[in-house]
Model the fold of this input.
Amino acid sequence: MPEIAALNDLVTQVRRDILRQVHKVNSGHPGGSLGCTEFFVALYQELMEHDPSFSMDGKNEDLFFLSNGHISPVFYSVLARSGYFPVEELRTFRHIDSRLQGHPTTHEGLPGIRIASGSLGQGISVAIGAAEAKKLNNDSHLVYTLCGDGELQEGQNWEAIMYAAGNAVDNLIVTVDLNGQQIDGATQNVLPLGNLKEKFTSFGWHVLDIEKGNDLEAILTGMRKAKEATGNGKPVCVLLHTVMGNGVDFMMHTHAWHGKAPNDEQLETALAQNPETLGDY
Amino acid sequence: MKTYTDSGKKDTRSGFGAGLTELGLSNPNVVALCADLTGSLKMDEFKENHPERFFQVGIAEANMMGIAAGMTIGGKIPFTGTFANFSTGRVYDQIRQSIAYSGKNVKICASHAGLTLGEDGATHQILEDLGLMKMLPGMTVINTCDFNQTKAATIAIADHNGPVYLRFGRPKVPNFTPENQTFEIGKAITLQEGTDVTIIATGHLVWEALEAAKTLHEAGVSAEVINIHTIKPLDDEAILSSVRKTGCVVSAEEHNYLGGLGESVARVLTQQLPAPQEFVATQDTFGESGTPEQLMEKYGLNAAAITKAAHKAMSRK
Done:
């Protein structure tokens, strides 16, 4: 197991990748990407059994689906730095003829992507399907998905949440990025989500909180508990309390950087707060 | 003229159920999902034979489409079953992103399409589904005409790798195509050869087209009848070679004339062989309650309407 320090070096490098990707094309979503950087690093470096040589079917490995596809910069960076495709390809993010579309897609054949996402609220359903297929295939590996908290305003999620509990889809871990922000402001002001822990629990899920969702050790401890909770007849939900824009002081605790790229000066400031560790692409 | 005999009226949805039953026995990767309409979709036998491969999702069609997409990851071939309205318009974005754009091998099987749903009325009588589905890149769109053809199509689409929309209906209609036929996706079937007018029909209108051809024959008109079960990919060559002979065409479908089969036919002809065309289809309207026969009469979707349209098309040559 890599030392936490090494994982944190990767986190810092991924933050740089996120910032540089969105800056170059002056578009994309840095806020949510930065908020979930530690989670992605923990997932792909420590928690999941997965094969970067990539097959769409993903038999006999853990699978991950990104439901809130707009945080593609962090997904692409972590996939590249986990060996799915050359890190240099991050240069093509959102460019014409690129495999790194604005939102992730299988359409261009990018290794690591198994479903298109971007239109919100569909990831949990897809993950349930993949989890059911694993059961039919007697494959004991797990299916993970990440969705945004604002995304839970989409009704399809609650169809899926009801289904997963009602059908004991217990090889599934849904993580909710609980940053309290969405495009128009705080979720509390746009459309309050209520008590998500009570909601998931009353739907029949096993629910865990990771209060320090930007702390690698806390994520690893919490997600290992989540893994232990699988296989017990209930789907597992992790409420990951994160800070949008984490790691860049002027992007933190605000929805302002949900879908806005930094200018040259802002990029310089942000990168200075995250010095190069593993080498820029 | 060839003679076609109704071997006994049967519903096309039962053809789907029979095909699914066969697939269940022959292909262990086939799984079925249903949104609280198992009996209506005739999926009971599959459910009984393979409870572990049958997924009841409840009244939650969006979730059903997502689950179906996910199940393909791991090699399953999901068949979703609900009414055509809830198979398309209700879940268009789920189909667009999670199935079509993602290139997933999902078979969207849709019953109770069109006016022949009958008494339930316009909320359930979708007349826009072919248009919605044919506009999705990579989507194969099939509308079968009778029990035997629906059964054959159901079996055939399991071997086609990619998303498919299979449309069928509720009422019992003449069963006249061969039992245990081989279904070839994208290959139109010429049912009658003729020289004066081409009738290109799909779904329940195919039998009506054959009836119209009989009436036309009695009036001395030689009508060619094409059963075009696959709306996309369209068999351009079958259309062109027929219209080269006849010089005019009637398209016939249980669908809005905007976005349906007729427009696809017109696109082919406009680009390669301009010819007069008449559209037997609903005229940009919703349906209403009534018996299937009453509705098909009122909205001009029967043999009489096709016959009239054929005369009009010929007069415009």
User: Anything to note?
Assistant: Chain B has two domains: 10-173, 189-315. The interface with chain A takes residues 31, 52-53, 55, 57-58, 60, 62-63, 65-76, 78, 93-94, 96-98, 101-104 of chain B (CB under 8 Å).
